[in-house]
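Posting this for the archive.
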Amino acid sequence: MIRKPNEIRAFIPGTVRTVFVKVGDKVKKGDRLLVLDAMKMDNELSALVDGTVKNVFVKTGQNVVKNELLVLL
């Protein structure tokens, strides 16, 4: 799978604990987007590039699988 910097995907199966962004938010590289709880650890996922949030595909409490698209910038 080719990774695109504007696609934030789950690197491991887990549960979305917190979503910090919504559609239309402007983010800079390094801004936190969401927290994914996986293997009893909270993993903060951040923006890889500057951009605007085009879509948020998950909500708090949702279980996700590996490589699932979470946020699109």
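Residues 53 and 60 are 17 Å apart (CA to CA). The chain has one domain: 1-55.
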